[in-house]
């Protein structure tokens, strides 16, 4: 959707390819069905290297378990080209809750199971499943409140209707009324080095990174995929691009097509268990 976090790497790629390779890239936002419509379009496109899709982890690792009659198989129908960025979620709470650390927040949740609410961007979204994973790993019970997107969830966190959200740093970093307790990856974020990792804050095992990446239709010739991969790596080395990504709480992620394919398969397996724990059924 235009203006969202996903828009940042897509626009950067379009600008970079036009400037450096003289290749005009048209970014077409295909909303609807959590990326199902866009995925279906790429699955059925000609494998000539001229139609690409920017996908995110949910398209590969969540939709197959939550969307009934998915019209394509992302692992079979997409040719991995290159990831673009990765971003963890942060555990963000209402500053008025009076918790200073992640351990404090877990203790508060254990005192009154189910009383604390967290805002989700909708059933089966990363902010929802990150909350479920947090409950599993921390052995606490939080109550999810579903919104249509992270924006409304943040608005209700600021209004005191929910006490926590699990979102990308870019969503909360400018909000003084929000306290960021931890980040869900093994290393601290370059854009927020003061925020501890979950493991440093005492919750090993709470690791969840979302990624954006480029795929082509199955059957796209290997030399074309290899060339696109090289061009994307060059873009990710560009200081200006890195600066723009960092502003959005995104970190560049460089992998070969084979490594990216392995990542897709690994996340597909991992999220199956999280979706199951969240009690989500295909609909």
Characteristics:
283 residues, alpha+beta, D-Maltodextrin-Binding Protein, domain 2, 2 domains, five-stranded mixed beta sheet, four-stranded antiparallel beta sheet, 9 strands, 17% strand
Write the layout of secondary structure elements.
Elements: H1 7-21, H2 36-43, E1 53-56, H3 57-61, H4 63-66, H5 74-77, E2 78-88, E3 90-94, H6 102-111, E4 117-120, H7 126-138, E5 143-146, H8 150-158, E6 164-167, H9 169-172, E7 178-183, E8 209-217, H10 222-236, H11 239-247, E9 251-252, H12 257-277
Parallel strand pairs: 4-5, 4-6
Antiparallel strand pairs: 1-8, 2-8, 2-9, 3-6, 3-7
Structure description:
This protein folds into 2 domains: 7-86 and 211-277, 3-Layer(aba) Sandwich (D-Maltodextrin-Binding Protein, domain 2); 90-183, Periplasmic binding protein-like II (D-Maltodextrin-Binding Protein, domain 2, 3-Layer(aba) Sandwich), CATH 3.40.190.10. The longest helix has 21 residues, at 257-277. With 283 residues, it is an alpha+beta fold. The two termini are 22 Å apart. The protein is built from 12 helices and 9 strands. The mean pLDDT is 93. Helix 7 crosses helix 12 (257-277). The protein has helices at 7-21, 36-43, 57-61, 63-66, 74-77, 102-111, 126-138, 150-158, 169-172, 222-236, 239-247, 257-277; strands at 53-56, 78-88, 90-94, 117-120, 143-146, 164-167, 178-183, 209-217, 251-252. The chain is globular and about 55 Å long. Strand 4, helix 7 and strand 5 form a beta-alpha-beta unit. The strands form 2 sheets. The protein has a 5-stranded mixed β-sheet. It has a 4-stranded antiparallel β-sheet with strand order 1-8-2-9, with helices on both faces. 41% of the residues lie in helices and 17% in strands.
């Amino acid at each position: 959707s235009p203006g969202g976090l996903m828009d940042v790497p897509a626009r950067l790629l379009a600008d970079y390819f036009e400037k450096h390779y003289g290749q005009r890239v048209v970014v077409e936002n295909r909303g609807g069905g959590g990326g199902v419509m866009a995925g279906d379009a790429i699955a059925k496109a000609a494998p000539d290297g001229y139609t690409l899709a920017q996908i995110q982890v949910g398209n590969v690792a969540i939709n197959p378990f939550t969307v009934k009659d998915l019209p394509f198989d992302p692992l079979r129908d997409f040719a991995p080209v290159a990831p673009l960025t990765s971003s963890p979620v942060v555990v963000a709470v209402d500053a008025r809750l009076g918790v200073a650390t992640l351990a404090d927040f877990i203790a508060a949740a254990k005192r009154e199971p189910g009383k604390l609410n967290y805002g989700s961007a909708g059933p089966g979204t990363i902010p929802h499943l990150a909350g479920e994973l947090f409950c599993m790993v921390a052995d606490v019970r939080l109550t999810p409140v579903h919104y249509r997107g992270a924006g409304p969830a943040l608005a209700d966190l600021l209004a005191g209707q929910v006490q926590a959200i699990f979102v990308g740093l870019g969503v909360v970093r400018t909000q003084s009324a929000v306290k960021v307790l931890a980040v869900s990856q093994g290393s601290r974020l370059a854009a927020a080095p003061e925020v501890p990792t979950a493991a440093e804050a005492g919750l090993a095992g709470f690791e969840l990174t979302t990624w954006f990446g480029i795929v082509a239709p199955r059957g796209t010739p290997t030399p074309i995929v290899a060339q696109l991969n090289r061009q994307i790596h060059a873009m990710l080395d560009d200081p200006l691009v890195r600066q723009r990504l960092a502003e959005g709480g995104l970190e560049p992620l460089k992998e070969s097509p084979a490594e990216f394919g392995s990542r897709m398969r690994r996340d597909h397996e991992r999220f199956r268990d999280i979706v199951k724990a969240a009690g989500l059924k295909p609909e």
